Amino acid sequence: MSKQFDVVVIGGGPGGYIAAIRAAQLGFQVACIDEWKNAAGGPAPGGTCTNVGCIPSKALLQSSEHFDHANHHFAEHGISATGVKMDVAQMIARKDSVVKQNNDGILYLLKKNKVTFFHGRGSFAGKAEGGYTIHVAGKTEEDLTAKHVIIATGSNARALPGTPFDEVNVLSNDGALRLGAVPKKLALIGSGVIGLEMGSVWRRLGAEVIILEGLPTFLGAVDEQIAKEAKKAFDKQGLKIELGVKVGEIVNGKKGVTVNYINAKGEAVVLDADKLIVSIGRVPNTIGLNTEAVGLQLDERGAIVVDGDCKTNLPGVWAVGDVVRGPMLAHKAEEEGVAVAERIAGQHGHVNFNTIPWVIYTSPEIAWVGRTEQQLKADGVAYKAGTFPFLANGRARALGDTTGMVKFLADATTDEILGVHMVGPQVSELIAEAVVAMEFRASAEDIARICHAHPSLSEATKEAALAVDKRTLNF
Ligand code: FAD
Ligand code: NAI
């Protein structure tokens, strides 16, 4: 006998659990199925984001930043800290406890919203009268039926062909977040978001870090001026990034990993490292969903094909988050989850892809929303640019971190903000103001005329907006 629901959500990551909560708020009977297991075999909802992504990476970034500050920045404040040691096991245990708090929080939220949680793998068993039957294989086996199914099964790390992850020497994001000791020499392939964040963690803790990037440009999706500024800071820190390399044979040996590659000058290089992190992007995950049973359409990358409203080729079947097109970001997955639940309820859920912020949580942090200068040039848009350096910001000086800048790009005629790009301290928080401004279709002058607290880093945002009209007050 199958259990009847209005909406069944497969996947309990940020896309899935948020969709389930929103659907329940809208009055539907909702089930959420997630298969992630904690170390004890119990449920650990929250997906990649909570278990091996956003949350644990930020926990390690925080711990390693404290260590870095104690070693290199306390002295200038008059604090002497000699013999500072890193207890990696304690750092990892703290990270695990942060993850568990989030897992437990999600279980609590599902219960509070009367979402029925199933721990196990969900797969399509077939079409049922007026909907679909979903089979759950966990400790027990059950069948659920629903008119609407939301798929939020996320993504997995992409492996290099011929070099599978063993999570001992060749690490995905999973292994990279639970190393038992600081490797002496750490190689990474891919200088994207994971490469830079994970490379930063282990460099701060004392590893020699070498990141090999296939493309000749650094952070090609980022505004060029911002990427250049960030690269300068990473070079200064000793984070070695080699661009334009061609990775060849990788040998996973007893003592470590050997990476053979051709560098940008065409020279053959042999790199011996203790550990290798492969961070070359992620692939949509539909493993075990049994999409064939119902004829769900996938594209050539294995992503579920959806339209602008996250509708699949099957009536009543929706898909959100990393398993569909678009940026692989937790907040994008969440927005899609909310929008789908609202569409099922006959409302007009909407996701504005033009105002999805990006943040890279390195030091300096990098954050942006909207179009880059190179995109505006390519699109033939007439624009004005304004920048303001943190060097001229009082709060940044007091903090002891004046790296970077805020940059505004505004329409040359209307002054509407087209993009805001930041590199520097705490810009992960500053970017929110730019997102709000762009959602409200503000002009640069709107931001320039708003009172910002003094002294605050946000004054750099106001000053960059003033710079669009060449009238900064503090630079
Ligand atoms: P996921 O979070 O992957 O969740 C999918 C869930 O579905 C998983 O729990 C999985 O077990 C479950 N599942 C899959 N198939 C089935 C099935 N058949 N039955 C039952 N359950 C199933 N994004 C940010 O926005 N900010 C960050 O700072 C950030 N940092 C990251 C750091 C790292 C190291 C990584 C790897 C990613 C990071 N991301 C970050 C990306 C972010 O984690 C993803 O975009 C986000 O998790 C996608 O959410 P999702 O719900 O689509 O999928
Ligand atoms: P990525 O797409 O950010 O970067 C991958 C990098 O690897 C690119 O620069 C690419 O050119 C390079 N590359 C690909 N194949 C290569 C090869 N064979 N040899 C050398 N270089 C190669 O992917 P990443 O870092 O794996 O992260 C996956 C996704 O996870 C991100 O795109 C992002 O959506 C998400 N994420 C988000 C974070 C955040 O929001 N702060 C943090 C971490 C991940």
Can you give a write-up of this model?
- The strands form 5 sheets. The protein has a 5-stranded mixed β-barrel with strand order 1-2-3-4-5. The protein has a 5-stranded parallel beta sheet with strand order 7-14-8-9-10. The chain has a 5-stranded antiparallel beta sheet with strand order 17-18-21-20-19, with helices on both faces.
- The chain has 13 helices and 21 strands.
- It has 3 domains: 3-157 and 283-351, FAD/NAD(P)-binding domain (3-Layer(bba) Sandwich), CATH 3.50.50; 170-280, FAD/NAD(P)-binding domain, CATH 3.50.50.60; 355-468, Enolase-like, domain 1 (2-Layer Sandwich).
- The protein has helices at 14-25, 47-52, 54-72, 88-112, 173-176, 193-204, 224-237, 330-344, 373-378, 394-399, 427-439, 444-448, 458-468, and strands spanning 3-10, 30-34, 116-128, 131-138, 141-151, 155-157, 170-171, 185-189, 208-212, 240-242, 246-252, 257-262, 268-273, 275-278, 282-284, 317-319, 358-360, 365-370, 383-389, 405-411, 417-424.
- Helix 1 (14-25) packs parallel to helix 8.
- The mean pLDDT is 97.
- With 475 residues, it is an alpha/beta fold.
- The structure holds flavin-adenine dinucleotide and 1,4-dihydronicotinamide adenine dinucleotide.
- Flavin-adenine dinucleotide binds next to helix 1, strand 2, helix 2, helix 3 and strand 3.
- The site of flavin-adenine dinucleotide has 37 residues, from helix 1, strand 2, helix 2, helix 3 and strand 3.
